[in-house]
Input
Amino acid sequence: MKKFLAAFAAVIALSGVAPVYAAPAAPTAAAAVDPQVSKAVREMFEAMKYRDVMKATFAQMEASLPQNMRAGAVAAINADTKLDAKAKQAKLAEVDQKLPQLAAALHTVFSDPTMMEEMLDALVPIYARTYTLDEVRQMSAFYQSPVGQKMLATTPKLMGEGMAMSNQIMGPRINKLMQSLTQGAKK
Output
């Protein structure tokens, strides 16, 4: 079971559908953000309908993650040459049994109402140190324009399609990597 969970965690980490990034070291003291820039960034987020876009993106991720993780786990199990057909079938049944719990846990994460505000609060200083006040105002004007609104409306769909496309391209490579790791672990 421990090997299965380790393989499952590796699939999750390597699949690209639940990216795990090393967070940069947090500065010891938060740099002061110009209140004008902070206000402009928050106004830009409103113009971007950031909350709506992220909610839609989270919904796309929540819908696709269990299927993608199952596919990765299936590939890892099928690549495990130490397992016979019966053992593979048992492992696959175990995956299928655990997926509803995983989906429920993912739903809890994605539906946490505090997560969005934490993300926005964390993004303000990043935008503030990346863009000038004038640049933030220009971006805000763009997002309020018809083409900016169209971009915002289509972003979740494009991200979903992009994720599906990247899974088609990355899937065989990840499966090959998982086979290699599984074979390397046997030595």
About this structure: The chain is about 85% helix and 0% strand. The helical segments are 2-15, 35-48, 50-79, 85-110, 113-130, 133-144, 146-186.
